[in-house]
Structures are given as structure tokens and as C-alpha cells.
Amino acid sequence: MAKIKNKKRKTADQVHGRKEAMQAKKSMNPFEIHVNKEKMRVLGKKNKNDRGLPGVSRAKAIEKRKHTLLQEYKVANKSNKFMDKRIGERNKNMTEEDKVMARFSAVRVKAHNKKSIFNLADDEVLTHKGQTLSEIEKFEDPRSDDEDNDYEQKSGNLEKDFVGDAHFGGGLFRKTGKEGAKTHKELIDQLIAESKKRKAEKQKTKEATLELTEKLDSEWKDLMPLINKNKKTEEDRDKESTPKVDDYDKVMRELRFEARGTVSDRLKTEDEIAKEEKEKLEKLEKERLDRMQGFVEEKSNKPTHRSADDLDDDFVYESDPEYMLSYNNEGESNVKVDATINGKSIGDNEDNSDEENDEGDEEEAEGEEEDQEEESEEEPDNLSDLKESDGENEDLEDEKPKTQTVKKLGKITEKFKEEARKNDTIILPKEETFNTKEMIQDDLQKRKEIMEKARNELPFTFSLPDSYEDLQKTFENQSSNHQCVILERMIKCNHPSLSAGNKENLGVLFAYILQHLNDIGSEATNAKSIKECFNIFNAIVPQIYELAQLNPDNAHNSLREVLKEKHEEYKKSPKKYPGLELLLFFKLVSILFSTSDFRHQVITPCFIFMEQMLNKCKVQTQIDISYGLFLCTLILEYTSLSKRYLPAVVNFLGGILHMTIPKTSVKLIKVSPPFKSTSSHLVLVEDKSKKTYDNLKLSSADLLDSSEITEDFQVRAFYNTVKLIEEFVNNLKDLSSNVEIFQGIANYLKLVKVDKYPKVVKEAKLSLEKLLENNRKERKLEFIVMEAKKPKALRLYEPKIVEIYDGKKFKVQSREKAARDKMLHKLKKEQKGALREIRRDKSFLGRVKISQKLQSDKERKDKVKRIFSEANIQQSELNAIDRKKKRK
């Protein structure tokens, strides 16, 4: 047979490699091969994992761990590793130019932080040929069109003709054929002369241009009216027909010129507001202390006159137009002065020079008063001078008391003020010129009134009390409004943002205020004190709320401790209602905290406490009934949002209605404790149907400890009970058991006789009965029934499809659910594999550590043996030396 030429021949390497593989396959130990058996053999199915080599796989894994995990273990907790983190050093594909560009870009990106996002290229200085753009774009010498043709001359370059003749035309060696040809030196001199001539002409033209420009600028104002003058006459304007403005254009113009919002000052923070409030109060307190000491600075809102020669030398004048300083055309003063000062009379007949001299003397005297400190010793002499002048000018004073010199009077008043400040006492003359005695007395009287008023005013700054007694002294003899102001100023002057320890100090102040409420509530024994107690509570509640917001944890803990203490006191006598202060705390709790929470560390104990009192306390006197109704009102306030049902409240209100039903010895009406079936304290005996009541609400006087129950209180208690029941019915209307909850109250209402009650009370009772009846009719109860069975479908003549089971379980689910289950299966599989690898890595590291330990122990034993052997040799040598010595 002929050979096939196109048959590919295998190389010697391929043949050799194949032979080695065959030899390795033949030399494989059959005991190392693991056969994976299958439960069910499927014909035609290819299985790649039917056989495995666990020994080979284990050896490969160990070898791989030696190169990876073992190397990491050796360098663990060691810092002798250098990392080159420069941009592009690890990327082998980047060239040197790419690395430089990447590093430059990183530097530029880092330079542009958030602060400079609006400053575009302000940090860069762009240059061109060594000059910045700002220097280039000054436009100091802009070139005009006229200068283009004369560019060579102005630029300082040589002329075209000269260059042609001197350089390219041959110069001195050119034969012109003309007589008297110019030499090179003559040409240069001619060129210099022409250049100087052109420069002189240019300078002259420039000066003429500047002169004309200045002249035009100076005459521009005269030209403006001619330019802006409208040449059209009024007749031409009337003839012109103005186009009608469209509504759309009109609206657009309004929107275009509409005022736009401007940037306002930023809102102040809480710390800045607190700091400003403190500074304001400190300033007001300083002014109050000055007023209390008599230092009053009267400020006028009217504008003050200032003349041209005013030197601010305490010149005093009246704002009345009669004394307004003015001058006529001749330079004389329009104000007529007719008075006497220091024995000298000043009138209309005096010369202006004398007045000027007097004014100069007075100014010198004022300068001496300001510079010297011995003014107080000289004032008696001035006052004595005034005494002597009184007798000379009595007639003048009687005739014209209003034409006195205001400036001198102001000086005298200031002197007496200064004397009063220094010595606290002053000796006044008996009679003064210009009625100064009366005016000074009036001034001192006003000062005394201002000082007394300042003493009675509240200080504007308060420090926090060191103890509860200090707070009581501060509140002593202060009304409710004053106590509110004191607390407000205490908080502002000691805000937590002003100092580090103020927050804890305000927490202590909160505890003191709670103690203050407890004291005023427990000390209220009459109607006036109870009313004052409620007024104080209403006044200081905003400040208590502010303190609670500044330190909520302290407020929670303080009120919990107070309620806990009150509950311990209540447990000593559980059948008696506590004092009035507990009602204040319950009301304060509803203001400070949220009462609609399912559980609350303060509200929940309050609910339990109030329910215990309504269930156990006896109801016999007027204060018991008022106290219980007050608690019911608080519970209604607590549950207005959460719609929570407390059985004790409904039981208490039903018991109050039971007390208004007349009892007979034949039939007893059942009632729940703490009420008794025979109690009839609220049964109205007298007829009050014709009496009119302005207010049927309960007052603070009803909380007095008085055993007598009046007819008026019986009417008001019944009316308030009916109104409270109506509120509770509306509040619990959404409950499915609403009818059953108020069924007992509906039965009691039918037995109450309202013939003797006023008309308002009768209407309230009928309204409540109608409301309960409507709720009973509108309520629909759904009875519990068994679930209806699904009707059985009729048999149809259709083939019955039976699913064939093929050995696999398929879940009927959506694509997303199937994908999620598949992902979870893969995740679970990977987790198992990861845990398996971790266990193998751990066992590998364990073997490495054991081998290292064994190696170190072996080395240590070898060293010990070597040391012992050396020691034995030394000992043998010593023994030999000893034997030689003994022989000798």
C-alpha cells in the first residue's frame, strides 16, 4: 500500500510525553484508587467522578498549603515587609508617561476639595511666555486701524527703502551713476534725524488728543441736555397711537419686576440665644441696681439740636421751640435771656461780648470741674453765692419764672446729684434763684420714688439656690407671677450651654421645685390657699417643662421617686385619699410626658396608683367625692388618645350615681365596693328646679376637708358625673363591648329622679340616656358560626389526568423564588466547602506547630546532651588531676 502523504506526524516530544504518562498510569497503585459507587446505574450516562485518587489530591493540597498558608504563617506578626504604593508601580501595563499623568491627576483631584468647588482655577496662575494673563490683558496701548500702515515706523524697525539700499542693494559698492551719492554714515544720520522727527510729531499729536479729550469731558454736562432732548411736541405725542398692552405682557412685566427674596441672617443656635438672654438680663439688672442707688440717666426720644460750634460740652437745652437755639440775619440770638447768675443779671440790653465772656467763663469752670476732684468742697461757696443773689432778683423771679437759663439750671441740678452720690446728704439753701429749691426737691423726690420702685422690682439675674431653704427664701412673699419670672430668669442665667455644670445644677433645681409644689399643696388648708396653690402651679408649669426638656433623665427619675414616696405614704392608710399635692403631681406628669404609650416608666405607675385609690378609698365626705372626680378627669385626659379602658373609673362614676338614688328599706340596689348599698349622701331633698346656676363646675373650694355636703354641691356633683360619663362613652365608643361596659350606669340613670334638679341638669341626664340608647341600637353583634364547606364540584366527562412520578421532586413556584432557592442551595454548599477547607487548614497548621515543637525539643535535647558530655569530660579531667595530687 502507498503511504498517505498528508498524515500528520507526531514529534518526538509528544511521543515521549505520552510514554511517560502511560508508565505513570501503569505504575499507579491500585489500592490508592477510590471507586465511587452509584445506587442506580444509568445506561449511556457519562460520569466523570466515578474514580478518585484521594492520596494524590491530599498530597497536592498539602503542597499548595506549603506555598500559601505556611508562608503566611511564617511572616505573621512581622513588619519587615515593604509595599510600593506609588500609583502605577504595580501595574505593569502602564508606561512611564501614563504613570506621570495618573500621579498628576491624583494631585489635582486632591487639591480640589469641597471648599473650592465654586472657585474655578483661582489657585492657578496661568502664564504665557513668562507673563501672567492679567499682565498681558491690561490693554494699555491698544492698536488702532490707522497704525497698521505705519507699524514699521512705530515699532522701531528699519524702513523698507533703507534696508533695500543699505543691505540688499549693494550699499556703498552700488554704482548709482549719479553725482553726489550719500555715504553710509550720511544715511545713518538721516535715518536718526527722521526717527526723532517722527517721535516729536507723535508726542505732539498725543498731547493735542489728550487736551481735546479733557475739554470734551469738561463740556459733557452741557451736551447732555441737547442729546437727551426730545424733539417731539405734545401734539405729535397725542397723534401717535399707543398700542394696547396685552394681559399676558402685563403679567409678564409684573413678574419680571416682582420683588425677589433676599438672603437673611442665619438662624441663631440654642447656645447663642441662651447667651444673648443672659447678657440682656445682666444689663437690665445693672440698670436696676443703678436706679436703686439713684443713678438715673434720663433718655429722651426726641431729636436733639446740635449747632455748628457744638463741642459736646454737656450743653443742656429744652426741646420746646421757645428755647430752640437759633440766630437772625444779624447774628444775634433769637432766644431772649433774662436771668441772674452769681449776682450778675443777663438781659436784652447786655452786649454780645459780655455773653460770650460769661459763656467762656462757664466753659472754663466746667473744664475745672471735670479735671479736679475737689469740686465737692467748692460747692458750698457756689450755693452761698446763689443765696446772696436771691434777695437781689426776687422781683425778676416773680415776673418771669419761665425765662431762666436752662444751661445754668442743668449745672446746678448736676452738682446736687453729684453731692448726693458722694455724701448721701446735702444742705439745701432756703431760697434759690429761679425756683431751684423746689425743682431740686422735686428731682430728689423723683429719685427717691425711682429708687423705691427699683428696690421693689425683681432682680434680672438669679443664681441657682444652694439648698431648698435658699429657694424658699427667694420665693418668700412672692406672687405666682413673680415666682414664674424668677424661675425663668434662673434658667436663662444658668443655661447648660453657658457652663459645664449647669445641667446638673438645673436638675437639682427641678427636684427643689417638686418639693416646693409638695409643700404648698400640703399646706393648703383653706379656700384662699388652695386657689393660690393652683395659681402658682399654673404659673410655673412652663418653666418646669423647660427644665424637664433640658434634662429628661433627671425629670423621669425625680418624678418616679416622688410617686414612689407618695405611694408608700398611701399604703399606710389605703382607705383614705392622699393630700392635694398628689393631684398636682398627676397633672404635672400628663404635661411633661406622653400618656398614650403602651408602657411608660412614669405614666404606667400613675395609672396603677389612681386605679388603686378609686377601688379602695372610701367615699363619704365632700372632699372624697371631689377628689375622686378629679382623678376621673385626669384619667380621661390620660386616655383621650390611647382609648384605654380602666374599669375602676366606670365603677366610681356608677357609684356616684348610686349615691344620688333614693334608697328604700324594701329593695336594696347592688353596688360595687368601695361604695355601700345604703349610701345616699347625694340624694337631693330640697327642690332646686327653679334655681339658676351660673357655673355648675366643681371649684377648688370643694377640695376642703368638710364633712357637710350641701344641696348645691349635690347638684354640681351629679351634673359633673353625668358629663364625665358622657365623655367616657364617646371616648370608648369604638370598643365592641361599649354597651356592656356602661350597662350598669344605664340602669342607675333610670332610677335617678331629676324632678328637683335644675333644667340644665335634666337636659344633661336625658342627653346621656339618649346617647347610651343609640349606642345600644347601632351596635351590631356578629355571632360565631362554623365555616361553610366548599361545595363539591359536579362530575364532568373529561379525561382524568394522572401525574407520572419520574423520581424527582419539582416545586411549583415562581421564577424569582426558584432562583432564590437555587442561590441558597449554592450558598449552603459553599459554606460547607469553606468550613471543610478551614478545618483542613487548621489541622495542617496544627501539624506544622507540632513538628516545630518536636524539632525545637530535639534541638534542646541535643544541646543538653552535648553540654552533659562536655561536663563529663571536664569532670573526668578534674578527677584525674585529683588522683595525681593524692599520689604525690
From TrEMBL:
Stretches with biased composition (Basic and acidic residues): 11-23, 151-162, 231-247, 292-309
Single biological process term from Gene Ontology: maturation of SSU-rRNA
Region (Disordered): 1-31, 133-162, 227-247, 292-407
Gene Ontology CC annotation, any one: Noc4p-Nop14p complex
Locations listed in the record: Nucleus, Nucleolus
Pfam family, one: Nop14
Compositionally biased spans, kind Basic residues: 1-10
Acidic residues bias spans: 310-321, 348-382
Domain of life: Eukaryota
Keyword terms: Nucleus, Ribosome biogenesis, rRNA processing
Chief place of localization: nucleus
Family in the record: Belongs to the NOP14 family.
Its job: Involved in nucleolar processing of pre-18S ribosomal RNA. Has a role in the nuclear export of 40S pre-ribosomal subunit to the cytoplasm.
The protein, known as: Nucleolar protein 14 homolog
Organism (species): Brassicogethes aeneus
